[in-house]
Amino acid sequence: MKTSGVLVTVLAVTTTTNAWGWNYYGNPGYNQGGNPGYNQRVSSGSSSSSSSSSSSSSSGGSSSSSSSSSSSSSGGGSSSSSSSSSSSSSSGGSSSSSSSSSSSSSSGGGQNDGWSWEMEYQMSQNYHVNSRQSTDVIGDLYNMSDKDMSSVGKTVKLILNGDRNGQPQDTVTHYDSCPSKGTPECAKDTCCIWKYIADEMKEAMTGTAGRCNGLARGAIRLGFHDAGTYSKKLNAGGADGSIVTFGECEMRSINKGLEEICHQTRVWFDKYKDFGISMADLIQMGANVATVVCPLGPRVRSFVGRKDATTESPVDTMPIHTWSADQLITLFEDKTISAQGLVALVGAHTTSQQRYAYPDKALWPQDSTPGVWDVLFYGETLNPNAPSRILKFPSDVHLSEDSRSKNVFSFYADQRWGHALWNEGYAREYVRLSLLGVNNINSLTDCTKVLPGWSGNTWSNPDQKYMDEYMQGKGNRDYASSPLRYGDKIPGY
Ligand code: HEM
After folding, report:
1. For 20-55, how does the pLDDT look when each residue is reduced to its tens digit (9 = 90+)?
2. Which one is catalytic: 128, 174, 225, 419?
3. How much is the pTM?
4. DSSP alpha helix (H) spans, 28-84
5. Residue 351 Cβ contacting ligand 1 at under 6 Å
6. Which spans does this entry mark as compositional bias, Low complexity (predicted)?
7. How far apart are CA 155 and CA 164, in angstroms?
């Protein structure tokens, strides 16, 4: 066991402040359209996101095809990828992303060649999209003056206000090593034990294809289902561990599907509880480890020190997948989350493979790359010709169509700009979500450094051909759904 306790910054990313005071990463290739090898379906159209979003109004279950065809927001439907892809199989709008990496800088302009009008355009879109996210200050920070705030308190307030990114400014700062578990040195460093926990979680959440598995997806959903019970009106609920400690996991039907991750979380808690951790922190750390373990997923700032619940969380505080946009937006407003913030958060369905909402379609994914944190979920939800084995939740479709949320939905769907924009939006909103109902934010500790490093902005599925064929409806249902569930490589025929 190494004992140096050194914090290593492998890659320090410079940040720059644009005209509106919005910080973005200055590392070439990140947050720009031309990131070489960024392996998603890419449209050749120079996408004016604003035009795509404004035209994406539609009635009925899908967005206007004009937006899809005129911009990269068609996600899986990108016709242009055929030019880049030897395996583009795209009747249902899903072309292969496996070989699109070589063409991923093909979108005309905006390459990594310094400042350009397109970057400026991107920055302004980022500002407009993200400035409409949630901004309420929450918990103990609400009534606290800045001079009484700890550095964590100030950082969280900046994130909540939208003045700071919910991702750390570098993507890979991490413990190179930390003191041995159980030593006084480890006990002195609040984050030390979390490094052991995060490493164990990572191991359990990754499959042989390098994708995140069902446990990871469950952990992300569990983080939401614990914290999301918060209600401003009721002044109750939040990230307090009650979903596990009070057995809400098993007793409330809204939590169906979370049994396995709840069980695993109890196992982890029993193993580490003597080190003074809380269940509330364990759940939120699990969600953040899982997010970055999914290829292309962001590192969301991770704080510890939450207190565990002493009572159950309030009932009827969680959304249902058949709800209208109005019902969803109203519910989330009571959680201090705006319509745009909600759109950023539901993007987590990019990893999803539902089992219980539609049991006859168990393990059908919500986009064509389950286990990968890409923006295909947004594009394919908008795309009327999405691959046939994608199951869209009505709630997601409603958000993609409502006037309060559809523009952001389209922005995130953009194959060139959407991913960086979404990761930032998601991280910011998830920091908020993970702190709902927490009334000691000022005394939390930032342990982001225990998270696995960011996997980067490139990803190739080793079994893309089989994934594509499966999504198009080839093969029997079990052929790929099970490997996909475990993050494992789909075997050849
Ligand atoms: C509009 C609000 C939302 C609704 C109605 C909703 C509904 C659902 C439903 C019905 C499932 C499928 C469960 C199953 O049958 O297995 C699901 C899965 C999932 N949800 Fe949501 N959700 C919402 C928001 C969110 C948010 C905010 C997050 C995270 C921040 C999230 C993360 C996930 C994940 C990761 C899964 C996949 C679970 C798995 O594959 O096992 N959801 N959601």
Report:
1. 222 333 222 222 222 222 233 322 223 333 333 333
2. 225
3. 0.80
4. 49-54, 65-70, 81-84
5. yes
6. 37-106
7. 8
